[in-house]
C-alpha cells in the first residue's frame, strides 16, 4: 500500500510516506582508551551462522579514511557485509570505509555489519581486540563473556508448515491452505521515524483480536535498515531489538494458529523520478525496487532467522513500480527480474532473482511471494519473467484497490486467471478508500470462487478513507470498511 498522507498519519499513526525469542546482543565494553572505542554485537544467530553489528567511535583527531581490524577465534568466516569493504584472510578481518563514509570527525561514530558462517559448536566469541588505523581500541576494557548462543525459533506447533504443490499452497499433510487475513502495518515506518517498532499493541490480546475475526494469516511489513541496524536507526528500535520484536510477533501469530508473512516494505536507495514517494536515500518511503547494497543481506539474515520454521512465508518486496521509472514495459520487467542498472532508477537494484538467490543460499525452503509491476497490481507478464526457484516454492503476489488499473473482473479473468492456473496466487493487499466494503466484496467473491488467497489492508486504527483501516480499536472493533472483511472471514471459517 502507498500509505496515507503525512498529515493524516502524524495525527494518528505517524508519518509514513505517500505513495521466537529475543536475541541478546554480545557487546564489547565501551573503550576507555584514548584513541577509539568499538561496540561489537551479535544481532542474530542460527545453527551455522550469525549476523553482527560493529560501531566504531573515533576519540582522537578527525580522519579522512579508516580501517578497522580484528581477529576471529572460533572459525567464523564473513560471507557478506554492508557499510564497509569487508575482507578476511585466515582469522584476520578488515573493514575499510566505503567512499561515502570515510570521514570520521572527533567523537563521531560509524556503524557497519556483516553476515558470517561459524562451526556452530563452542562459543561464538567476541573478538579479543580491535584496531582502528592500527591503533588499539578499548585498551582499558575487557570484553565480557559471551551469552549462550540463542536457539532458532522452534518449529510451529499450531501454524502449518507450507509448500507449493502445483497451483496450491498445502500443509505437510497435503491439505490446501488458503491465506485469508489482514496486514499489520507499523514495522516498516515506526523504527525509521524513531517512534518505536510497531504502531499500536502487538501483545497476545491484540493478536487474539485478529484471530477472533477468523483470520488465518497476518502479513508483517518490515524495514531493511531497521532489521540490519544501520547507523541512522536509533539502537533501541534497530538491530537486535528490532529482530527480537519481529521474532516475538511471528511466534505470537503462530501460537494463534495463523500464518505469518514477513515482508520487505521500505528500502534504501534514492529515487526522485516519476511517482517518487520521497527524495530520501534512507528507507523512509516506498521505492520502485529494492537496492542491491542492503537487500540481499536483509533477506539472507531473515532467511537464516526463520529457515527452521516453514510456517513463515517471505514476501520479497511490497510494491515494485519500475514501470513508473521507464516508458519501456520490457525494460521494467527485466529490471523486476534481474535488477542491476535500471532505466530511471539511480541506484543499483536487487531484482527478484537476486532476492530468491539470497534466501535459497541459506538453505531456507520457506514459501516466497513475488509481486508484479504497478505496485503489484500488474501480473500480465509475471509468468514470462518469474525468477527461478530451485525449491519450487514461489507464489505470485497481487495487490488490488478500487483505484487501481486492474480492479475489475475483466482484468482478473484475462491476467490473474492464467497465473493462478500455474502457481498459487495471493492477494497480499486488498482494500478500498470509500469507507465501505462493496469493492472488496467483489474481490473476495472472485477469489473465493477460485480458491485463492487474500489479506485486507490494514489492521491499524487510521482513518478508513486514507488508510484504508479495518479497525477503529485494537480490540478488533471494525470500521464500516472492515465490517465487510470481518463478517466474510467469519462466514468462511465459522
Q: TL;DR?
A:
This protein has 494 residues and is α/β, with parallel strands linked by helices.
Any overview of this molecule?
The protein is α/β, with parallel strands linked by helices and 494 residues long. It is 22% helix and 22% strand. The chain is built from twelve helices and 19 strands. It has helices at residues 6-12, 204-211, 224-228, 240-255, 295-306, 329-338, 352-360, 373-376, 382-385, 409-420, 438-449, 482-493; strands spanning 36-46, 49-58, 67-71, 77-82, 85-89, 92-96, 109-117, 130-132, 135-136, 162-165, 168-171, 180-183, 217-223, 259-266, 313-315, 368-371, 394-401, 425-431, 453-456. Helix 5 packs parallel to helix 7 (352-360). The two termini are 29 Å apart. Residues 4-32 and 141-157 have low confidence and may be disordered.
Radius of gyration: 23 Å
Main beta-sheet annotation: 8 strands, parallel, barrel
Quaternary status of these chains? single chain
- How would you state the average pLDDT, rounded? 89
Low-confidence stretches: 4-32, 141-157
Classify the beta-strand content into a percent band.
15-25%
Report the count of strand segments.
Answer: 19
Overall geometry comes to globular
Count of alpha and pi helical runs: 12
Q: Termini, distance in Å?
A: 29 Å
- Helicity level, as a percent range? 10-25%
Instruction: Give the strand order of the largest sheet, numbering strands 1, 2, ... along the chain.
Output: 12-13-14-15-16-17-18-19
Amino acid at each position: 500500500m502507498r500509505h496515507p498522507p503525512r498529515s493524516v498519519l502524524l495525527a494518528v499513526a505517524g508519518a509514513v510516506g505517500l505513495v521466537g525469542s529475543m536475541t541478546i546482543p554480545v557487546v564489547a565494553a565501551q573503550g576507555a582508551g584514548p584513541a577509539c572505542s568499538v561496540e561489537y554485537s551479535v544481532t542474530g544467530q542460527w545453527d551455522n551462522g550469525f549476523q553482527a553489528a560493529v560501531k566504531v567511535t573515533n576519540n582522537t583527531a578527525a580522519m579522512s579514511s579508516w580501517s578497522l581490524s580484528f581477529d576471529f577465534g572460533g572459525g567464523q568466516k564473513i560471507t557478506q557485509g554492508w557499510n564497509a569493504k569487508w575482507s578476511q584472510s585466515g582469522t584476520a578481518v578488515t573493514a575499510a570505509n566505503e567512499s561515502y563514509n570515510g570521514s570520521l570527525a572527533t567523537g563521531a561514530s560509524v556503524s557497519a555489519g556483516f553476515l558470517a558462517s561459524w562451526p556452530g559448536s563452542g562459543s561464538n566469541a567476541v573478538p579479543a581486540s580491535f584496531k582502528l588505523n592500527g591503533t588499539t581500541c578499548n585498551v582499558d576494557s575487557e570484553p565480557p563473556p559471551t551469552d549462550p548462543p540463542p536457539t532458532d525459533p522452534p518449529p510451529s506447533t499450531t501454524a502449518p508448515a507450507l509448500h507449493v504443490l502445483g497451483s496450491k499452497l498445502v500443509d505437510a499433510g497435503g491439505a490446501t491452505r488458503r491465506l485469508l487475513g489482514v496486514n499489520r502495518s507499523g514495522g516498516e515506518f515506526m523504527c525509521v521515524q524513531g517512534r518505536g517498532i510497531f504502531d499500536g499493541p502487538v501483545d497476545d490480546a491484540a493478536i487474539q483480536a485478529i484471530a477472533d475475526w477468523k483470520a488465518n494469516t497476518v502479513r508483517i511489513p518490515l524495514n531493511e535498515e531497521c532489521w540490519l541496524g544501520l547507523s541512522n536507526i536509533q539502537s533501541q528500535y534497530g538491530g537486535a531489538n528490532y529482530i527480537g520484536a519481529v521474532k516475538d510477533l511471528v511466534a505470537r501469530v503462530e501460537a494463534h494458529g495463523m500464518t505469518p508473512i514477513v515482508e520487505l516494505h521500505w528500502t534504501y536507495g534514492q529515487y526522485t523520478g516519476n511517482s517518487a514517494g520521497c527524495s530520501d536515500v534512507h528507507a523512509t518511503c516506498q521505492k520502485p525496487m529494492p537496492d542491491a547494497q542492503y537487500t540481499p543481506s536483509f533477506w539472507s539474515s531473515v532467511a537464516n532467522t526463520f529457515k527452521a520454521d516453514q510456517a513463515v512465508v517471505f514476501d520479497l518486496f511490497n510494491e515494485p513500480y519500475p514501470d513508473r521509472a521507464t516508458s519501456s514495459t520490457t525494460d521494467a520487467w527485466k529490471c523486476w527480474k534481474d535488477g542491476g542498472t535500471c532505466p530511471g532508477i539511480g541506484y543499483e537494484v536487487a531484482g527478484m532473482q537476486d532476492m530468491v538467490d539470497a534466501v535459497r543460499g541459506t538453505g531456507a525452503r520457506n514459501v516466497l511471494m513475488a509481486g508484479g509491476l504497478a505496485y503489484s497490481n500488474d501480473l500480465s507478464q509475471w509468468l514470462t519473467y518469474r525468477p527461478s526457484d530451485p525449491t519450487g516454492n514461489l507464489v505470485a503476489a497481487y495487490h488490488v484497490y478500487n483505484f487501481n488499473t486492474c480492479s475489475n473482473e475483466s482484468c482478473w479473468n484475462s491476467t490473474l486467471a492464467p497465473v493462478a492456473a500455474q502457481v498459487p496466487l495471493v492477494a497480499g493487499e486488498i482494500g478500498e478508500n470509500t469507507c465501505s466494503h462493496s469493492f472488496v466484496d467483489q474481490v473476495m467473491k472472485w477469489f473465493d470462487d477460485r480458491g485463492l488467497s487474500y489479506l485486507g489492508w490494514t489492521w491499524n486504527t487510521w482513518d478508513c478513507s486514507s488508510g484504508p483501516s479495518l479497525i477503529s480499536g485494537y480490540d478488533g472493533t471494525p470500521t464500516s470498511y472492515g465490517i465487510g472483511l470481518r463478517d466474510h472471514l467469519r462466514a468462511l471459517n465459522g
